[in-house]
Design a protein that fits this description.
heterodimer; A: about 300 residues; alpha/beta; Rossmann fold; 4-stranded parallel beta sheet; about 40% helix; globular; B: about 180 residues; 5-stranded parallel beta sheet
């Protein structure tokens, strides 16, 4: 019998290829459901989920909320700016207080890497990591891989290049784990300063020339430059970055093949990707968003479906 | 453990023929009728019924779909096993249609309850009927009855009825396993 191997979703590193495929198969069903007139199923009607966001988010948060509503779960939302954290409460106290109100599952985003692991060790509820600092963003990786599978038929054997700020990107790390588990080849591309040296130990290729990387790949995942996480200057100017690593139509047209363009959002139009490319038929950026709801529904359905403890 | 055959291939064929003729007798030209097989096991039966009806009557233009009830089951979070959904194929609205739900075994009636809930998400049917190959009598948890029954059997709670199909890589046969 198929079974999701973990009680929490803390990172892609902890789960298996079978788990990922189970999520995809389940997400296929949910994709059908969110495209029919009545978009709701009653599965999670006796579950309460807390969305705890210690960092800003638009897409992920709305996507999770919508997924929870489509599954009929009860939800409470909480964001750091409006919380007692600013009064000096610790993370574990904050979360325990929320759990005392009988919450079954916690979706958390936190600026500290490992915050979700810490929480999972200390509290009873099931945890879904919605991004922990520069560490992992597992649901983003799942929806990215799901979108590749949908567009190209499968992930196995495909060549995916992740372009941009690899050092500060949790999307990059989760994507590398996820794509490799599914049998894809992964390359990272960006300025030397934004590619950590230890990345080679993950078995990915490293390329500093964007055109070479694009020529090699089937899929290009363009990341945003995370200026908010950069404490020092990693490159001379955004303008120079755009000239060397920005994806534009001229570069796409120079390739002798068609590639699929992805972006986890939020897009900085004109920096890592031009509007012309982001809105072109090569781009599956909006499909990624739609698939985000379906894959998050699948994750929550599979986790909540484990016998309650 | 003791397993005996309660329907072998030839009897099964006769039973399927009879069920199809009952459907033809009661529903006529199948105008506004939709046959809906229940995933995962009822679809083997529903696909057979669909083929047989086409070969007996020549009518092809009735609606046919397959319904997955995973998200409507009442044992979610209560069983030991994960409920993994199957494919759902209903590309029409059930509004105003006469629906014949098709499943292999009617036991507690809980799957049918879930199916009725799931169906309402596709519209308001004019009528819903139930066709089952095997009706396990006296074992219902809910007040649900079938309109078309292939065979009724008396069973005890710990007995099992196993329906196998050649499409499923087995032979066409129905077993009863008793302990």
């Amino acid at each position: 019998m198929k079974q999701f191997s973990q009680r929490h979703l803390l990172g892609i590193k902890d789960i298996t290829a079978d788990d990922i495929n189970l999520v995809f198969e389940t997400a296929d069903n949910f994709k059908q459901i969110i495209n029919r007139p009545i978009k709701k199923v009653p599965s999670l009607r006796d579950i309460t989920i807390a969305n705890i966001f210690f960092e800003n988010s638009t897409r992920t948060r709305i996507s999770f909320e919508l997924a929870q509503k489509r599954l009929s779960a009860d939800t409470v939302n909480f964001s750091a700016s409006s919380s007692s954290l600013s009064k000096g409460e610790t993370l574990i106290d904050t979360v325990n207080n929320i759990l005392a109100m009988k919450v079954d599952m916690v979706v958390m985003r936190h600026p500290a890497p490992g915050a979700c692991q810490f929480l999972a060790r200390h509290i009873k509820a099931q945890i879904i990591n919605a991004g922990d600092g520069t560490h992992e963003h597992p649901t983003q990786a799942l929806l990215d891989a799901y979108s590749i599978r949908e567009k190209l038929g499968s992930v196995k054997g495909k060549k995916v290049v992740i372009v941009g700020d690899i050092t500060h990107s949790r999307v990059a790390l989760s994507n590398i784990f996820c794509l490799q588990k599914l049998g894809a080849e992964v390359m990272v591309c960006g300025p030397t300063t934004l590619i950590p040296k230890h990345i080679l130990s993950l078995g990915v290729k490293v390329e500093h020339n964007l055109m070479k990387a694009l020529q090699w790949c089937d899929v290009a995942n363009m990341l945003r430059i995370q200026l908010e996480r950069q404490d020092i200057k990693y490159f001379p100017s955004l303008r120079e970055y755009t000239m060397l690593y920005g994806l534009n139509k001229t570069r796409l047209d120079a390739l002798d093949k068609e590639i699929v363009i992805m972006h986890p959002g939020p897009i900085n139009r004109g920096v890592e990707i031009t509007s012309e490319v982001a809105d072109s038929r090569h781009s599956i950026i909006l499909d990624q968003v739609e698939n985000g709801v379906a894959t998050r529904m699948a994750i929550m359905y599979l986790l909540a479906g484990q016998k309650s403890q | 453990m003791d397993s005996r055959i309660i329907l072998e291939k030839k009897q099964l064929d006769i039973t399927l023929d009879r069920l199809c003729h009952e459907l033809i007798e009661r529903l006529g030209d199948f105008k506004d009728t939709a046959f809906i097989g229940m995933q995962p096991r009822g679809v083997f039966l529903s696909r057979r019924i669909k083929e047989k009806i086409i070969s007996i009557t020549g009518i092809q233009n009735f609606l046919y779909g397959e319904l997955d009830i995973s998200f409507y089951r009442d044992d979610y979070r209560r069983g030991h096993e994960q409920i993994v959904p199957s494919e759902l194929k209903i590309d029409f609205t059930v509004e105003g249609k006469k629906i014949v739900l098709i499943d292999d075994v009617l036991y507690t009636g809980r799957s049918i309850r879930a199916a009725l809930d799931a169906l309402t998400d596709f519209g308001r049917p004019e009528k819903v009927e139930l066709l089952v190959l095997i009706d396990r009598k006296y074992s219902r948890d809910l007040p649900i009855q079938a309109n078309y029954v292939g065979m009724s059997v008396d069973t005890r709670t710990h007995d099992k009825v196993k329906v196998e199909w050649k499409e499923n890589g087995k032979k066409d046969v129905v077993h009863m396993v008793t302990n």
